[in-house]
Specification:
mainly alpha, two-stranded antiparallel ribbon, 6 helices, about 10% strand
Length: about 160
């Protein structure tokens, strides 16, 4: 392996002997490092099996179910070192339409122009759907009249 600087020079800067550096380099991996490498592989496996949604607490719980003892903070540190960030799925939201791609967009019949030349010419309304134990409850809103003077005031920004 080629280093950016000579090994003797780097050892001199770090006040270690070159023989000590090469002895350290030839040494086997410590038991702690081996265990951490095994735990890292398990943590990555559990994380990917969960579709990358498990945080360190759930990964820790899964390791406990598998009979692998490990501390919560160790799992947290391993996940941080590996760059494993869970992505929580969005909660399910009720929808009243089936999105199969065939439905068109809702037409804008007033072309975003809410001004009117006479009272009662343009009216808007809405419907609110509320989930209940018996199903959906549709609460229609009352129609809002946009009088021509009010429309002009909104348009002119007064």
């Amino acid at each position: 392996m080629k280093y950016a600087y000579p090994v003797k020079k780097m050892c001199q800067w770090l006040t270690v002997s070159p023989s000590g550096f090469f002895a350290w380099k030839r040494r086997e991996m410590s038991a702690t490092a081996r265990r951490r490498a095994e735990l890292t592989a398990l943590v990555v496996e559990i994380f990917t099996d969960s579709d990358e949604t498990y945080g360190y607490r759930r990964v820790h719980a899964e390791l406990g179910r598998r009979g692998v003892p490990a501390g919560l903070e160790l799992i947290r540190a391993i996940m941080r070192d590996q760059g494993l960030v869970p992505c929580q799925p969005r909660p399910w939201r009720a929808s009243l339409t089936e999105n199969d791609g065939t439905a068109g967009s809702i037409p804008d019949l007033v072309n975003r122009d809410f001004t009117a030349d006479a009272p009662g010419e343009k009216m808007v309304g809405d419907i609110t759907y509320i989930p209940t134990w018996e199903g959906w409850l549709a609460v229609p809103g009352h129609r809002h009249r946009l009088p021509h003077q009010e429309g002009r005031r909104l348009r002119d920004g007064r």
